[in-house]
Amino acid sequence: MRNVVVTGCPRADLAEVATLAEFGVATVHEAIGRTGYLGPGIRPVYLGSRVGGTAITVVCWPGDNLMIHAAVEQCRPGDILVVTTTSPSSDGAFGELLATSLQHRGVRGLVTTGGVRDVAELHAMNFPVFSAAVSAQGTVKATAGAVNVPVSINGQRICPGDAVIADDDGVVVVERPRIGSALAAAQARTEKENASRAAFREGALGLDRYDLRDVLSKRGVEYLDHEAYLESQ
Amino acid sequence: MRNVVVTGCPRADLAEVATLAEFGVATVHEAIGRTGYLGPGIRPVYLGSRVGGTAITVVCWPGDNLMIHAAVEQCRPGDILVVTTTSPSSDGAFGELLATSLQHRGVRGLVTTGGVRDVAELHAMNFPVFSAAVSAQGTVKATAGAVNVPVSINGQRICPGDAVIADDDGVVVVERPRIGSALAAAQARTEKENASRAAFREGALGLDRYDLRDVLSKRGVEYLDHEAYLESQ
Amino acid sequence: MRNVVVTGCPRADLAEVATLAEFGVATVHEAIGRTGYLGPGIRPVYLGSRVGGTAITVVCWPGDNLMIHAAVEQCRPGDILVVTTTSPSSDGAFGELLATSLQHRGVRGLVTTGGVRDVAELHAMNFPVFSAAVSAQGTVKATAGAVNVPVSINGQRICPGDAVIADDDGVVVVERPRIGSALAAAQARTEKENASRAAFREGALGLDRYDLRDVLSKRGVEYLDHEAYLESQ
Amino acid sequence: MRNVVVTGCPRADLAEVATLAEFGVATVHEAIGRTGYLGPGIRPVYLGSRVGGTAITVVCWPGDNLMIHAAVEQCRPGDILVVTTTSPSSDGAFGELLATSLQHRGVRGLVTTGGVRDVAELHAMNFPVFSAAVSAQGTVKATAGAVNVPVSINGQRICPGDAVIADDDGVVVVERPRIGSALAAAQARTEKENASRAAFREGALGLDRYDLRDVLSKRGVEYLDHEAYLESQ
Amino acid sequence: MRNVVVTGCPRADLAEVATLAEFGVATVHEAIGRTGYLGPGIRPVYLGSRVGGTAITVVCWPGDNLMIHAAVEQCRPGDILVVTTTSPSSDGAFGELLATSLQHRGVRGLVTTGGVRDVAELHAMNFPVFSAAVSAQGTVKATAGAVNVPVSINGQRICPGDAVIADDDGVVVVERPRIGSALAAAQARTEKENASRAAFREGALGLDRYDLRDVLSKRGVEYLDHEAYLESQ
Amino acid sequence: MRNVVVTGCPRADLAEVATLAEFGVATVHEAIGRTGYLGPGIRPVYLGSRVGGTAITVVCWPGDNLMIHAAVEQCRPGDILVVTTTSPSSDGAFGELLATSLQHRGVRGLVTTGGVRDVAELHAMNFPVFSAAVSAQGTVKATAGAVNVPVSINGQRICPGDAVIADDDGVVVVERPRIGSALAAAQARTEKENASRAAFREGALGLDRYDLRDVLSKRGVEYLDHEAYLESQ
Questions:
Q1: ipTM rounded to 2 decimals
Q2: HSE of A37 in the Cβ direction (CA atoms, 13 Å)?
Q3: pLDDT higher than 90, residue C102
Q4: Which terminus of chain A has a smaller tally of CB atoms within 10 A, N or C?
Q5: Nearest CA of chain C to the CA of A4: how many Å?
Q6: Contact C142 D142 (CB under 8 A)
């Protein structure tokens, strides 16, 4: 990794990102071919947010938040900070003061594979934070890293300017060039889901709606009455 | 495991299960001799539910929710779906559309050793879900499994029709034939706990109420004044 | 470990502890030189508490809460029970009845490296609990341990009478002799943070406020325009 | 769980179990329909054993090995001790002295969801041990449990007398009534694998041997030249 | 992810990769600026191998090894298979038969974020395998994935044809275009380390050799005699 | 934590420590009242060592091994380095060059709650290392810490000069003032175990030797014939 702060990165269109965010993480993840999900290990520090923005990426040394400070200056309204470390670290590299600085700049949230602190204050500020850990353990500001280089989390590549969507299901990333098709696919999927929802409310079954009876049969799944099953054991 | 959907399973009496649920998970676990608890790894996706129902069991392949769809058709009012996988999987095999289908059929909740998604929507629907993970990662509908065969979670055997009780402490299962005695034991325990609670509110000590001073003494526990202790170190 | 219940331990001054608690866990942890934090593994069982008190320490055998009962008798108003086990145990060694007993005695909360149960009831009682696990699994009262001996959690030594502060960030411990200096340092840090917060709200940057531009430069961090960066790859 | 020591359990035929053991854990697991595997969490404490025997089951309280002592008396030549605890425990409940006792009785190994100690000595004795943890932490002998009741590990039910096979891949259990069919299926599978191995050594491909080209095609997998792929990105 | 098998990928020069492998994982990781390491979670299934080759990448569905079979056909002498799954899976997706097939084709080893089985046989074949789990649990061959698309493991991007080096320290990946500079840097580092090793064998200290006394002093580290330290506490 | 290197610490008597080491970790842990064990998370990087020495303690920042370099200078023949970090870190902070330096000084091994690398080389050097992780990930030398201050691992306090014993069961620490009594107790326990071992080899049972039949009976454990048990279910 080169120790660099990359400036002037292009961002995804904020209006498009906002529309995408309304679909929620699970729908967007489906809409882009089941990619982009940052995994079950990154959780909201408090439930109830749904947020979208454009990625500013940060690579920190474990136990060190120097590069988060460098990243703040690169932030514009609509950005979301995406932080990772060169090796696993649960330390509280982010808290209320950094959130204050970000909120002033119009940043919409933080995503990190590391830890955060000041949870009560972040909650009170209504600043959405998604992290792998909560920890009061402080960090130093001593070691170089990078801002706005491509990073990978849970096998998903994130470039600066990509769309980041986060809610109670976690975080999904959409590459900038694919946001247009993601919007179309999410819209199509939502319409399909709306129709399914309406049908399920009337009592339709997924078995019929998704043609699964045939799948069950082809995979050799038998139907057996309870009594017959007990006798066969 | 035989690839089978077992139909027409007998269920525990729903009125009895409802009464049992009111005692809560911890009390029921105690009432049946400290068995049936599905372990600390299965947690509510949002706090604040307490629910009871009769088990419909499902065995899925990891990353595949075909058999959940097959199970929905077997559900009746009062049931709770209990899902496990043949090997560990955190994928979001269950979400809001399946919950809609289940809610239409009068199903009271879902318990899974795997993952779920659409947490915000499940919360808004007030559909209780207890899982080992939250994950937006989708699943396929491609591989055979089983519905309504006996399963084991955390060493506890669960048969279709057994009582399932879940709250903020997790999930406990009561075998169908033992529900009557569980009710009696839970009632007795609750009365005893009510008496203890009243006594503790007046300042009684567990040491006296449970005759523990004698236990401490027999196990060789000494009482030492702080000063004497420091000197002895 | 000697099997002993140490009585009559001196406590930190309760008024000082209460003042310290208002600063919160992260600030106090910083104020005492980034020590005393019990780690990210101990979490509130429900969000929203901030509490301070004086430690009563308990060492239990796994799956056994005999010594918690012995510890209750040693508690005075303002205390917080700090429980650990001789080896890892997630069992629910603490619940609503013990909390009732503690609340009667004026105890302010519980911290444990093990498990607790009756989460809904503890929440309803507004009794703050910080634990490594929630588990309905019950415990026995059969094996000796210790009350009010020094214990260590996450590398932090805790003596009876030390100050314990807990909130949504976890738990921090301040040794009794250092509470005075902790108060002064927390006050100084808070004033400094208030000034920083005000500055950040006006758009100041941590880079300038903490003189980090020089650090970045000394560590060899370069600034590169996005186009130049892409060309260099 | 009833606190009971069940005596005089019937065992699987030892000659059959020995034959089954020679096939190894992975083959036997396949032969019985991909069931019976105790999971990746139970590992050999040293590599290089392959062993089979008949299960003597033990349920212990965490941190307590009283019931292992009770189980020793129930052991006969050819048995394997299968130990689990009522909640997770890594304590070293088993070591060289118990192994000496078991070896005298002709017991062939130990499987446990808990911990063991004296690893160097067990290795020197050539006594095969498969466990979830190694820990020097000792246990007490104070709490009731059970011997020779059905237990469940990783969702697999194990009854006393069932066949237990263990090697570097972990542990698999075969229900007593299914050992005959398991032997036949393992033999058939081994013959099929021998043929496959011979073919693979000659350069045959699984794609052809298992008719997977058609599966790939039906699932929509395309073949693309490297250059074409890069252009399509 | 597009369901595709990419054919005809260019590979790194095998002679260069072989030379690089001799430096070992830790040295190569250092030589390329502390990048490329696949993390402490991927371990050799048996100790004692050191191997290098060119990456063939595979993305599988959890519990499904269809795409490994598709990948075998794409392998040439000197390749190493690098397998990951779309979500975490410990299943034994790879074993002795696939290894036989790979060995016939001159493949040098396997790296996987999932599980493997037939450990004893792989050891006997001397086929190096590095995995996150060992599990006898079998997989199906039913779901699409990809071969030879870029993948990310532990934040490191791996393209087909990149150099993969593995030993008892785990696995490191070197991008194809950087192998030349990696060789030079590894050689330079090794010479420096040889000099350091010779000096350390004579009693030199890292404090002097790396000019760390000054660092300690600047960071405020004091030297205190034991007696003075005790008095200051 | 004060940033300090404490010099001139007194050590335990090396001859006594060597004698103690011969008893092995499990026996010494028992001999000092089941304390001092550093837990199942610290494992030998290769099996087969048994070593004893006097502790030199080191506290590092995560991802930083500056203080290990400072500690080397403080080492004398017979010492064992005991390293911990201020928050969890798996990084490879220790490897072959530091081991070379330590071996020159007569240091007998390394114990760490963090990670190490160069496993193959350490094995070849026969330098015993006990760690929580193996990782090729390098560290910096930038942040202050401490040498020879008291540290705590897994709840056990370790002071410089204490005896450290390590083998395939993990690591145990004996406080310097208790080594004499530990030796006596370990000797007594070994004699008792020798007698037990001889008895067990002749077929004696722990049930009789430890008077456990009475314990079973008092705890309400019943003996039931297999047939009677099945009928009672």
A1: 0.95
A2: 33
A3: yes
A4: C
A5: 5
A6: yes
